Amino acid sequence: MTTILKPKENIAMRAAKELQEGNIVNLGIGIPTLVSKYIDSPSIHLHTENGLLGVDDLKQDIDPLLVNAGKLPVGEASGASYFDSADSFAMIRGGHIDVAILGALQVDETGLIANWAIPGETIMGVGGAMDLMSGAKKIIVTTNHTNKKGEPKLVKTCTYPITSIRKVDMIITELAVFALQENKLTLIELMPGATLDEVKRKTESEFSIAETVKGG
After folding, report:
1. Is 113 domain-assigned?
2. What is the domain count for the chain?
3. CATH code at 185?
4. From the candidates 9, 18, 21, 49, which is the catalytic residue?
5. Is residue 123 one of the residues assigned to a domain?
6. CB within 8 Å of 42: residues ≥ 6 apart
7. Is 9 a catalytic residue?
8. CA angle 85-99-157, nearest 5°?
9. pTM over 0.90
10. Of 25, 116, 143, 163, which sits with the fewest C-beta atoms within 10 Å of its C-beta?
11. Tell me: the pLDDT tens digits for 116-162?
12. Domain extent for 11
């Protein structure tokens, strides 16, 4: 019997299954930070833009000076290394990050992502998202399927400023898993408790459906 976790936890657990031995992984703010709870391989190394390779979950007393790029307290894995932000971004821009797991405000049906600004609201800047979109080898988006108003986050065209012209590789929500195939979204998996009708109802963008889902 499949255990149905809280939606965000379920998304994070599913995202962790995409990681492979030896991967260097950057986790964005929000749902992505939960992914670390479901990584059980010591050969998967977590990276943060502010200068730590070997991010770990907190296992001891909180050190207020040890935080990730989202200013959340983190732990350090055995063998972790520290460096300045310039070196950290050089790793990203140099193609040394295998997977970036990012949150999103919107994703369009061609795989473009908007995840850093809402028109009319004060923002602090794009942060590392633009660099990660350009430099990471694989981009996984983890997000709720709809926003707080119940509006689809998977849209035909992004109405918020896009983060990069690079397309994402995969989108994981509490309802479904999509892969970008030939510049189009393909539904490859339904999440526990979700139905195809619900996914269609809550998705604005067009998408194809993999045979494995149709057969299920």
Report:
1. yes
2. 1
3. 3.40.1080.10
4. 49
5. yes
6. 77
7. no
8. 100
9. yes
10. 116
11. 877 767 666 677 899 999 999 999 999 999 999 999 999 999 999 99
12. 7-215
